[in-house]
Amino acid sequence: xxxxxxxxxxxxxxxxxxxxxxxxxxxxxxxxxxxxxxxxxxxxxxxxxxxxxxxxxxxxxxxxxxxxxxxxxxxxxxxxxxxxxxxxxxxxxxxxxxxxxxxxxxxxxxxxxxxxxxxxxxxxxxxxxxxxxxxxxxxxxxxxxxxxxxxxxxxxxxxxxxxxxxxxxxxxxxxxxxxxxxxxxxxxxxxxxxxxxxxxxxxxxxxxxxxxxxxxxxxxxxxxxxxxxxxxxxxxxxxxxxxxxxxxxxxxxxxxxxxxxxxxxxxxx
Length: 269
Ligand code: WAQ
Ligand code: MG
Description:
By secondary structure, the chain is of the alpha/beta class. It contains 6 helices and 13 strands. Bound molecules: pimeloyl-AMP and magnesium ion (MG).
């Protein structure tokens, strides 16, 4: 089993509040060092030391792994949250969503997508035609898992992002997560911004245009954030999609392009 692969997943919490999480897919010889690195990261989380760290490794069948190229990256500079949300709406319309559906998704994240305006642990699933919410557990949502860069591709991707000024691991992790979402059957688009109060950049990702970053999608200090995945239910059932997102191992073996930062112009949509 020289070529066997493991999914290594870490989550850290304090008083049952989620602090950080990360995951990798690595060859067997890298499981120990990866586990150590993820635990190190959990311990240095800026929200304070966790009282629980779960780190779990699980063998995955190399035959079951799918391979894909990372999405292309675009970055748009907007002047305000309002302009950012307008840009997001226009990009969603460009992906074929109705105005009602796009507006509903933005309002959902802005107000806290979980029960009573809370932040969900995973993503909301939304019907791409009528905006109906489809996830079974409204607090947990859908958790995308079992995706990573192929280890031989990681240095190139990290270098490309660093040169573009996008070297923070938050960008790479969101790009990898979004790449898996875009590779899933029946996905029309994704909308995301962070729940971290100091991180206001988010993105709209679509299969046609890739990962489109928007410099400001919320105000500094706002603790609300989340993800919405838009589904075409004529192409996939919710259960098949959730199974793919949560369980299908996917490795990225090639980088996409990274376009220079551009001022958002309405006509771009
Ligand atoms: N699967 C589905 N949803 C998730 C997952 C996951 N594995 N992890 C987090 N979420 C949801 C959950 O609702 C979080 O509250 C929300 O997404 C945001 O998560 O290019 O950092 O980790 O500059 O705070 C995007 C822009 C950053 C990066 C996104 O998300 C860039 C980010 P966070
Ligand atoms: Mg977060």
